[in-house]
Design brief:
The termini are far apart. With 309 residues, the chain is an alpha+beta fold. The chain has helices at residues 7-16, 39-46, 50-58, 66-75, 80-89, 108-116, 135-140, 150-156, 158-162, 167-182, 189-201, 203-211, 259-269, 282-296, 303-308; strands at 121-124, 130-133, 222-226, 230-240, 248-253. The longest helix is centred in the middle third of the chain and has 16 residues, at 167-182. A 5-stranded antiparallel beta sheet has the order 2-1-5-4-3. It folds into 2 domains: 7-89, Orthogonal Bundle (434 Repressor (Amino-terminal Domain)); 108-269, Beta-Lactamase, CATH 3.30.450. The chain is elongated and about 65 Å long. Strand 3 and strand 4 form a beta hairpin.
């Protein structure tokens, strides 16, 4: 079965292989030929039959109860994010025809907001395509620019990799967040294209993807070794962008008074910020009108000019 057709089975099998017998109190006797737990051990600890658990892994039963999935989640030691993801996988979904690729657009109000924010900000799709970015975000990383993909750049672009001093940790967090963002919506051509490309081009991505880690990345900090200003530790907020499906407004912000705040301010000073339109006051309008009145008042016509009339 492919991942697209057996999301639930692939997920619980991958997670089963990462739990050791010692973690769940099972004594190890002799040599074990499988990584992690055996199917019968998961079934026993979850209180279900081995045959039923096998049907779940093989994709022959696609509508288990929430109680069964929560029992399996407990055995597999899943945290809240991973348990929620497992429950979503267990919802029976009607088969859909493969969709055509569609171009994503950002609401005009959100796009204007991004350009005027004094912090690095950009809008990304659920597949981590950069849709809109302000100048300070691009100054933090030149790859944060419309048309780029954050996932592709961090795995395939050496310049982007050099920005992340703990690249292995950063990529693991990003892949887990990506899987959580996509959820069960794996028939989108953009998802199929991106995962296929990265699986072939990056063995590191392929290994991380096979782990089936799931994590919500809201609020997780990012560490950047910037070539101009040095180390930056920036908090990351991901906010829903104008109700668009899966789009997130991403804002980087340092802790107030920190070295990172000073360094980000220094970087911002090198960026030409767009001028924010300001409403003219009544006094300013009055002065301008008076000035225009003086400059445009008709002048006395010279006698020789009248004679040519």
């Amino acid at each position: 079965m492919t991942e697209e057709s057996n999301l639930l089975g692939d997920y619980i099998r991958a997670r089963r292989e990462r739990v050791t017998p010692e973690q769940v109190g099972i004594p190890v006797l002799g040599v074990r030929r499988v990584p992690g737990l055996r199917r019968e051990e998961v079934a026993m600890l979850a209180g279900i039959s081995v045959d039923y658990y096998l049907r779940l892994e093989q994709g022959r039963d696609r509508n288990p109860s929430a109680q069964v999935l929560e029992s399996i989640a407990r055995v597999l030691m899943l945290d809240d994010d991973a348990t929620a993801y497992l429950l979503r996988l267990g919802v029976d979904r009607p088969r859909r025809h493969r969709r055509r690729p569609r171009k994503e657009t950002v609401a005009p109000g959100i796009a204007k907001l991004v350009t005027t924010l004094p912090l690095p900000a950009f809008v990304e799709s659920r597949y981590l395509d950069v849709l809109v970015a302000n100048a300070l975000a691009t100054a933090v990383s030149p790859r944060i620019t419309p048309g780029a993909n954050r996932l592709r750049d961090v795995f395939l672009d050496p310049a982007e990799q050099a920005l992340h001093p703990d690249w292995n940790k950063a990529t693991a967090i990003m892949v887990a967040g990506f899987r959580n963002s996509v959820g069960t919506d794996t028939d989108d051509p953009r998802f199929i294209e991106l995962v296929g490309e990265l699986s072939l081009a990056s063995p590191h991505f392929s290994r991380l993807w096979a782990r089936h880690d799931v994590r919500a990345c809201e609020g997780a900090p990012v560490h950047i070794d910037h070539p101009q200003v040095g180390g930056l530790r920036l908090n990351v907020e991901r906010l829903g962008a104008g109700g668009a499906t899966g789009q997130k407004l991403v804002i980087y912000h340092p802790d107030p008074g920190s070295d990172s705040a000073d360094r980000l301010a220094l970087l911002a000073s090198t960026v030409q910020a767009p001028a924010v339109p300001r409403r003219t006051t009544a006094d300013e309008r009055g002065g301008a009108d008076a000035h225009r009145g003086e400059s445009t008042a008709p002048r006395a016509t010279a006698p020789h000019a009248r004679s040519r009339a």
